[in-house]
């Protein structure tokens, strides 16, 4: 409905956007005056509405040559229309838009301000968030006004009640917001067409296609859009903020589902451990090798210091001498292990070869016992006596 110019405010040294009412509309004088009255009223009301996602209105004035003009804050960034030329937005980007634009419109509605022309061209994507522009620029009061046989403006984002009867409300702004976000997510218009009358007829009679599967988003997205784009204004959400929150919550489910939780990570680690070669038997194997080496070294040291063990004699005199001068085999910690061998020797005398082999076995056993003496407590005296050769039957 107007032309926008970039200007500079020398008093405050800042860039501003100046919007003028178009002079090529060919409006009848009564309609033009009604439009100017509405613009003045809404400009005054908009000046009292503050929201981070609304373009701020700085000033309003009238010039004999230019007519009514509005001065807005200048926002550096592309419009949503310009951004969509490169393709649709990601689900996360649409979710952010839904929250920001829905909250901004509800703030304006609570102040009694209607936008009447929400569309991608009136959404600016700034660095710190999206901003809705053109508040205070009311649409033609009678939407059936025509110029050269067609409707004024593009009705592709207008609610059916606005196109047919000129009835604008927070619910009609919600319909326009839903059509805008539908296009942001899919990259195409919900109600395409070049002819304004044909598009208005399609909005009144057709439902927009389902896009959840195509856009790889949860299926609830189609249900949310169907409600916000309902032909019946009372069937839509209670507010634009409610609609924006519902859409954002569902779109963000996809992002949360892609982030594994701690149990998921532990499950993945367990699967990776099962897929890797087993290593559980390596530690016991190394421990056994180490103990074997340590035992061998201890045994060698013991044999070097104690000398060879004397083989027991089969004669009674030798046995008495052995009882008078105990050998290493009579040590309490050795007797428990070699007592059965001594018992066999008493009953059947051994040959020289058997005695040499027995002596070697006794030396090895004594060395192993010596190495582990510190880990075994001394046995009870009764147990020691029971293990002596002379105590055996």
The biggest beta sheet is recorded as: 4 strands, antiparallel
Structural class: alpha+beta
CATH class of the largest domain: Mainly Alpha
Query: Radius of gyration from the CA trace?
Result: 48 Å
Low-confidence stretches: 138-153, 274-283, 305-330, 333-347, 381-393
Beta-strand percentage range? 5-15%
Strand order of the largest sheet: 1-2-4-3
The name CATH uses for the topology of the largest domain is: Transferase(Phosphotransferase), domain 1
Q: Name the CATH superfamily classification of the largest domain.
A: Transferase(Phosphotransferase) domain 1
Number of strands: 8
Quote the distance from N terminus to C terminus.
124 Å
Please, what is the oligomeric state?
single chain
Helix content: 40-55%
Q: How many domains, as an integer?
A: 2
């Amino acid at each position: 409905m107007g032309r926008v110019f970039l200007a500079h405010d020398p008093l405050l040294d800042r860039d501003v956007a100046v919007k003028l009412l178009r002079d090529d509309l060919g409006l009848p004088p009564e309609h033009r005056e009604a439009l100017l009255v509405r613009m003045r009223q809404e400009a005054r009301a908009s000046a009292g509405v503050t929201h981070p996602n609304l373009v701020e209105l700085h000033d309003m004035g009238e010039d004999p040559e230019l007519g009514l003009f509005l001065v807005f804050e200048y926002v550096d960034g592309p419009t949503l229309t310009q951004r969509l030329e490169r393709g649709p937005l990601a689900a996360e980007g649409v979710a952010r838009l839904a929250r920001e634009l829905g909250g901004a419109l509800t703030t304006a509605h609570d102040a009694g301000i209607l936008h009447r022309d929400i569309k991608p061209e009136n959404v600016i994507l700034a660095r710190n968030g999206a901003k809705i522009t053109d508040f205070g620029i009311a649409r033609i009061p009678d939407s059936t006004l025509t110029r050269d046989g067609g409707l004024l403006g593009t009705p592709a984002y207008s609610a059916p009640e606005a196109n047919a009867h000129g009835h604008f409300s927070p619910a009609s702004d919600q319909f326009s917001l839903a059509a805008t976000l539908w296009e942001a997510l899919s990259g195409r218009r919900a109600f395409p067409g070049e002819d304004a009358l044909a598009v208005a007829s399609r909005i009144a009679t057709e439902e927009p296609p389902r896009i959840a599967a195509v856009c790889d988003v949860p299926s609830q997205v189609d249900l949310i859009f169907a409600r916000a784009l309902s032909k019946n204004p009372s069937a839509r959400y209670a507010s634009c903020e409610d609609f924006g929150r519902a859409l954002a919550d569902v779109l963000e489910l996809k992002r949360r589902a892609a982030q594994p939780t701690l149990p998921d990570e532990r499950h993945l680690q367990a699967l990776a451990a099962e897929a890797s070669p087993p290593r559980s038997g390596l530690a016991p194997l190394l421990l056994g090798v180490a103990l074997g080496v340590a035992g061998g070294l201890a045994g060698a040291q013991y044999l070097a210091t104690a000398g060879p063990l004397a083989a027991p004699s089969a004669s009674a005199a030798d046995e008495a001498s052995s009882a008078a001068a105990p050998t290493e085999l009579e040590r309490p910690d050795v007797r428990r292990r070699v007592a059965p061998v001594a018992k066999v020797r008493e009953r059947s005398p051994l040959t020289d070869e058997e005695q040499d082999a027995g002596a070697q076995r006794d030396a090895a056993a004594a060395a192993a016992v010596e190495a582990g003496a510190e880990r075994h407590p001394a046995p009870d005296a009764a147990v020691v006596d029971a293990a002596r050769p002379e105590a055996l039957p």
